[in-house]
Every structure is written in C-alpha cells, then in structure tokens.
Amino acid sequence: MSADRARNRRLRPAVAGVAAATFGAGAGELAAAIIAPTASPFTSIGGLLIDLAPPWAKDAAIALFGTGDKVALLVGVAVVLVAVGALAGILEARRRRWGRGLFALLGVFGSVAAATRANASLLAILPAAIGALAAMAALSMLLARVPAEADRASVADVDRRRFLAWAGGTAAVGVLAAIASTALSAGSRAVMTVREALRLPEPATTASVPASAELGIDGLAPVITPNREFYRIDTALSVPQVDPADWRLRIHGMLDREVELTWDDLLALPMGESVTTLACVSNEVGGSLIGTAVWLGYPIRELLARAAPTADADMVLSRSIDGFTASTPLEALTDPGREAVLAVGMNGDPLPVEHGFPVRMVVPGLYGYVSATKWVTELLVTRFDRDRAYWSDRGWSERGPIKLSSRIDVPRAGASVEAGTVVVAGVAWQQHTGVEAVEVQVDDGAWEPATLATAISADTWVQWRFDWDAAPGRHTVRVRAISADGEVQTADRAPVAPDGATGLHERSFDVR
C-alpha cells in the first residue's frame, strides 16, 4: 500500500467524526426548533461561554470583531465542534466507545448549558441530548463503512469513494437539518409580523432636531443614527423573540406597592419623544460603539412614583427576558430632569427586534451596561450593597457614568489631503452634562477652538468642525472636549475596564 493511500486511510476516522458531529449538530438544532426553540445547542453553549468568559476576553472580542463578536463566537464554537468530531472519530477507531463517549460528554455539556439559561423550559435538555445521540449513531455507522485493506487498488478506490459518499451525505443531512431549523423558527417570523403591523401611539410630546444640529459634512456621523447603523452590543447570541401580547413588566422590591404592566397598559400611558445618545462602555477612544436616536417612551420615574420606593433604596436592578441584569442608580431613574424611559419606538418605528422589541430602557448619561436593558421584563428596587448586576459580578463599575469624550471622523485615518483649507470634523459628548466647546491641536501646537453645531440637548452628542490651513507634510491632529460644567477632557489614557476608556483621539494625515 502506497504512503498516500496509508495516510488517506488514517484520515478516514477523522472524516467520519467530523461528518457525525455535523449530523448531530443539525439534529440538535432541528430538535430545538420543534420542541424547545430557546434551547438551541449552539446558542446555549455560546451563551454559557459568554457568561463564563472573563472581562478581558469580552473586551478582546469586541476590540477584534466589534459588533460581529457574536458571529465570531458562533464560528469559534463550530470550529471547536469540528475538532471534537475529528478527535471522536480517531478515538472510536482505536478503542470502541471512546469516541461515542466524547460525543456523550458534549451532549451533557450542551444540555447543562441549555438548562441553566434564563427561562429554560423542562424540555431544554432534550435538543443537545438528541444531537449527541444522533452523532453517536452516525459515528458508528460511518466507521463500519471505513474500507478494509484491499488486495487491488481498484477495489480500494471503490470502497473509498463509497465511504466518502456516506460521510458527505451524512454531513449534508446535518447541514440541511440546521437550515430547516431556521425555517421552522416560527416564533421569530411571528414576532416580526407583529412588529411590522404595529402602529405606535401618537406622542403626547414631540422632540425636534434643529437643522443646525447637522453640519452636512461627508464622512461625518449623522446626528441621528439610522436604526440599521445603530451599534448592537449585548449578551444575547440568539435575539429574544418577545410577542407584545405576552410581555409583562414587574416592578417590585423595596417599595410600598408592586406595579405590573402589560403591553396594552404601557401603550395606554402618554408617550413622549426624547433624543438620547447611547454609548457602550467598551467603546475605545475614537470608537464607533455610540449612536443617537429619537426614542418614544414613557418616563420610568412616573412608574417608580406609583410604586413609591422606600427611603433606603438606591438602585434598580433591571432584568431582561434573557437573564441579563443592569444596576442603575435610583436617582438617575427618578431625576425629573432626565428622560429615562421605557422605550417602545426608535426613530419613528417600533423598536427593532435586535434593539429590544417590544420594550427597552433608555437612560441618558450612563453607559449601556448599567442602564440600557433590552427586552426588559423586571425592575427590582433594591440597594447596591444587596444585589449585583451581570457586569458588576465580572469586575466592572456598578454605576457607569459616561465620560467626556470626542472623536475625529474626517479626514479618515491615513488619508492623503491637498494642502490648503482642510475640514476636520467629528462629534463630542458627555450625556446629561453637555459639551460647551471643542478644541483641536495640530501636531504639538496650541489648542484652537472648533465650531460647534447646535446641540439637540445635553443628552446628545454634538457635531463640530475645524477649518485647518494645512501645509504639506505629515501631520497629527488631536481633539478634546470641554463640558458644560467646565471639565476639560483628560489626555490620560485608560482602558475601557472597569468604567470606560479615556484619552484623546488623534489622526495622522499626509498633506500633498
């Protein structure tokens, strides 16, 4: 037998294992779609990995992949599954039951992951178990078809082709099952249909965006971020599908009376529009994890007033339907000058599903990880020394006030521009405090004032521009903001953990 033929023969158990793993994964996803839609083995395992990941791993994922971090994680899970499948095939070929035992362990892990997710049903353990059993059966079947030693090369080639056909067919069935599971996700389609048919109530109060808030410079972030471009950072690998008819909000804890709202109850309240800029604590200096929208919602302070928190309460622990929690200072939610709302609309439309449909929180002045809970279903009035939130348990600050920041949008990094007047432009923000001025420094020269657009309010970012008389050569431009209370943005560099990055954004350009 030639060396190539021997090597190919040794690879066949690994191929059988990969095909069996693919078949099992597809079977598990299809089972989830039929009997337990929230217990997808892939998303359950991925969600558990997110929960177990240390803060530095989360930061690294967002820094590397941005809003594609969830796709990257699922791809990573798939790569690991392929590796486990190959190992299972090799083990099973060398010692019976070892490979199937590895698949069984993977099934147990997937079942535990599904059973420990928020709102897990009694059937949550079944999809991963079914997937494991399917993989075990497929592995036994395929290894029984690994061709034996043959006297003639022509016979060996026929046997090899038969084995590859079986392995390829098994893997293809797994892929088709996974595709079918997506098609059977009726909950997702139903919620999208409800959302598309929904008509939001007319706002009792409206928000206006002055024309002078938009400088109209190419490449500059628009003052109102379109829904499709709004950043998304959360812990949900699979976007929760919440039918408004099933939505409930419970307000309980340290208060005189509990309050519970249905969707119809909420829509019957006088809704108002407010414009607020949201920012993620993982936003690096100069980063894009920030956006502004016109929100339609009802003030949370009014609901809390109805519930009457006790005098010693100082925090509200909000909970999402997927189990995520955020710790918001009670004073931020009861502040009459701060439009902290339960939002149902975003830029004139019902909330997009991935941004919290049907109801989310929007709180000016706080990073999203302590305030902007999506798919919110519970507000627990409590104390910081009694309860901790999802990211607080992972080493992040409990309160998360947004830091004074600014960013250069144009010219883009590394651009080559013509000598003469060059427009440098960007945005600056410190929500709920406001920005009084922006200054620009070219190379190591003096700080010079930029021109500000009209700020919509202290709760939004503001655009700025600086007309620079650029001389030929390589230049570096920096920006800093000055807040409405006189604070000058610090040049000291700090990472995003534990409470937001600091430092000055700069860009370098070649001037021709």
Automatic annotation (TrEMBL):
Keywords of this entry: Membrane, Signal, Transmembrane, Transmembrane helix
The keyword Repeat is annotated on this UniProt entry: no
SUPFAM superfamilies in alphabetical order: E set domains (SSF81296), Oxidoreductase molybdopterin-binding domain (SSF56524)
Span of domain Oxidoreductase molybdopterin-binding: 237-388
Transmembrane segments: 71-91, 98-116, 122-143, 163-184
Domain of life: Bacteria
Keyword hit for Membrane: yes
UniProt xrefs under Pfam families: Big_7 (PF17957), Oxidored_molyb (PF00174)
Leader sequence residues: 1-27
Region (Disordered): 489-512
InterPro entries, per the entry: Ig_E-set, Mopterin_OxRdtase_euk, OxRdtase_Mopterin-bd_dom, OxRdtase_Mopterin-bd_sf
UniProt-listed PANTHER family: SULFITE OXIDASE, MITOCHONDRIAL, SULFITE REDUCTASE
Name of the molecule in the record: Oxidoreductase
